[in-house]
Design brief:
2 domains; about 80% helix
Length: about 400
């Protein structure tokens, strides 16, 4: 005989399900509103994010100088100038060798195109010169017909470049102010917040800062591994411009997907025009192998260890970020997941019951001095939100 559902329990389960569903819908609605507001303010948020990432790289030397008696403004100015010189030197290191061999590279490109044309004219394709000329004429005609679209795309590209320059300049200024006045932020924030928030928010901010620094360091380490392995492969094959290509690989590692594609395309192109198609295919195989190791082994392992995230979480975060926001989403997915983990862990700490205190050393009539703290036992105070050196 089958059991009959209890009406009271059924109604209670339905009410509980409805209440939970309503709570979930409210959370999703709040998240959607927050993301919409973030998108509306993206022109300000994006330079701020870049400035924070750059600050995590440049803060250790500033902290070293300040500990040795340098004024905050002087230490921040010196490190900012050195950072700009290092960035300019990296660009020069990449551009100068390429410019010095631009003539040979141009000749190699022309010869490579001629070789491809001769190969296409033979079996099995048997594409004649007339067909090639006809295809070129068709392409030119389409280009002329779509001149307006080309102008629009060009203007859009110019606008993108201008926005990129403005974002970079704004991010550099913000980085300088963060380096100069960053340690004052948490004490100021503590004074502005009321009640419990003056304890919780500074602690979460400090942990988030440490997590963001771990992300940038891990990304730099992964980029260094890519640069070393790909540079060794290019050196073994005998491709010129090994050092600039290795530096370009390291720098492009901070831009997921597009950075790797761009660096790989440049390396394969130089191998094609200097060494021929065989070495270009070898270089392509090396880059694909290293990128697979980096994406599936190195990056998940290093970032999961440094950020406290499982390797599967890192992979899923990058995939989700890329599907939601493209390249920028892929770049920010892992630190965003790490920051969410920081907030979640802190909430669990505050909402969990305190561990039971061992009372073996105390008599039954003795009262613990901290008993009055109740649920506040073990909770961080506002005075411990910052390290002694104010390095948060």
């Amino acid at each position: 005989m089958s059991a009959t559902p209890n009406p009271t329990k059924t109604r209670a389960a339905l009410r509980t399900s409805a209440r939970v569903s309503l709570d979930v819908l409210l959370v999703l609605l709040t998240t959607a509103v927050a993301l919409w507001a973030l998108g509306r303010m993206w022109s300000v948020v994006w330079p701020l994010v870049i400035a924070l990432l750059l600050t995590t790289l440049t803060w250790p030397p500033v902290r070293f100088l300040r500990r040795h008696g340098w004024p905050p403004a002087l230490a921040a100015s010196v490190v900012t100038v050195l950072f700009l010189l290092l960035a300019a030197g990296t660009v020069v290191l990449i551009a100068m060798p390429v410019a010095s061999q631009s003539g040979d590279l141009a000749t190699g490109v022309i010869n490579g195109i001629q070789q491809v044309r001769e190969w296409a004219s033979g079996p099995p394709l048997n594409i004649g010169d007339d067909e090639v000329s006809k295809a070129l004429d068709t392409a030119i005609g389409r280009a002329q017909d779509s001149a307006g679209s080309i102008v629009t795309v060009t203007l859009s590209g110019v606008g993108t470049v201008v926005n990129g320059v403005v974002t970079t300049v704004l991010a550099l200024f913000l980085m300088f102010f963060f380096l100069k006045d960053g340690p004052r932020f948490l004490p100021w924030l503590t004074r502005q917040l009321p009640g419990r928030l003056r304890v919780d928010v500074p602690v979460v901010a400090e942990r988030s800062w440490e997590t963001l620094g771990a992300f940038v360091r891990s990304q730099a380490f992964v980029g260094l591994l890519d640069a070393v392995f790909i540079g060794l492969g290019l050196w073994i094959v005998g491709v010129p411009l090994v050092l600039p290509l290795a530096v370009l690989t390291f720098v492009s590692a901070f831009a997921p997907i597009v950075g790797a594609l761009f660096a790989g395309f440049v390396a394969v192109l130089i191998a094609l025009v200097s060494n021929g198609p065989t070495d270009a295919l070898i270089v392509l195989a090396i880059i694909v192998a290293v990128q697979q190791l980096e994406g599936n082994v190195f990056q998940p392992m290093v970032q999961s260890r440094g950020l406290g995230l499982h390797a599967a979480v890192v992979l899923l975060a990058v995939t989700l970020g890329g599907s939601l926001a493209g390249i920028v989403g892929s770049l920010l997915a892992v630190p965003a997941a790490a920051l969410i983990s920081v907030v979640w862990n802190y909430l669990r700490e505050q909402l969990s019951d305190p561990p039971e205190q061992e009372s073996d050393a105390e008599g039954p009539g003795e009262v613990d001095d901290d008993a009055g703290a109740g649920a506040d036992a073990g909770r961080p105070t506002a005075g411990t939100a910052l390290p002694a050196d104010g390095s948060a």
